[in-house]
Amino acid sequence: MSHTAHIRSHRKPRRSASTIAMRAGVAGGVLSTLAVAGASGSAVAAEPVTQTLELPTLTADLAAQVAQSADVTQQAAASYELQAERDAAAAKAAKQAKADLAEAKKKAAEEKKKAEEAARKAAAERASRTAERATLSASADTGSSEGSGSVSSSSSSSSYSSSSSATGSAAAVIAFVQAQVGDAYVSGGTGPNSWDCSGLVQAAFKQVNIDLPRVSQAQSTAGTQVGLDNLQPGDILYWGGAGSAYHVGVYVGDGMFVGAQNSSTGVVQAPLSYDPPSGAVRVL
Asked: Which residues contact 18 (CB under 8 A, 6 or more apart)?
């Protein structure tokens, strides 16, 4: 017996070959798995990962809702724009109305001032008319005497015929125009206290129901043309050409006429020599 036989061996007991083989196989399988996993992990790490997000598909109802919402938004924008335009137009109209009102007030003030001035002028003319009437009447009487004397002294060479009286319609016309002597002359005037030349003549013949044209040009061709050496009371005298006359009056006889001459003299009765006419027409 050996001297170490009584000492227990400290070596581990030997495993059987099958156990070792099995463990080796397991270890190999584990290593193989780790190797494959590592390779796979490297491959995954090397390649970028792409993530795809799938958007929801628009259905017909959803598309209709989107379109409707867009229409509502567009209509709201159009409504706001229209309202803005209306507001701007209203502001502009208000501004223009304010300016028009100011202009109207200004014009009204000017018209009022003119009316007051015209009223003062008319009052002054009426005040002076009474004083002038006596002077004009005296002048007319003097002219009538001179005219009658001229006709009586040289009736054969006189350019005008004369008549001391008038009857019928002619007398009514003459009475009317003589009643207006001293009235004011106003362009466009048709009475009763102010006249222009054709307005006075028209009003005089209206007294005998004869409607004459309003203006002197037409009145100068309203009747039969007569010579100035063959005048009769009631004939219409005109100054200028027949059809283009610029002034008219009424022959009242005795070499005298009545006419609304101008703003300085008003309606006067004067001898034909005071302002010789160009021609005459007879409507009575």
From this structure: none
Output the pTM of the full model. Answer: 0.46
Look at 255 and 16; give whichever has higher pLDDT: 255
Q: CA-based angle 211:184:171, to the nearest 5?
A: 45
What is the percent of the chain with per-residue pLDDT over 70, rounded to a whole number?
A: 62
CATH code reported for the domain at 80-151+160-284: 3.90.1720.10
> Per residue in 120-178, pLDDT tens?
665 555 555 444 444 444 444 444 444 433 333 233 333 334 344 678 899 999 999 99
Cα–Cα distance between 137 and 134 in angstroms, integer? 5
Give 38-83 as a DSSP string.
Answer: HHHHHHHHHSPP--PPPPPPPPHHHHHHHHHHHHHHHHHHHHHHHH
Q: Which helix (H) or strand (E) holds 23?
A: helix 17-46
Could you give the angle at the alpha carbon of 219 between the alpha carbons of 202 and 251, nearest 5°? Answer: 70
How do the domains of the chain map onto residue ranges? 80-151+160-284
> What one-character DSSP code corresponds to residue 7?
S
Q: Which two tokens stand for residue 154?
A: 């040289």
Q: Output the pLDDT for position 78.
A: 84
Residue labelled with tokens 């061709």: 221
DSSP summary character for residue 242: T
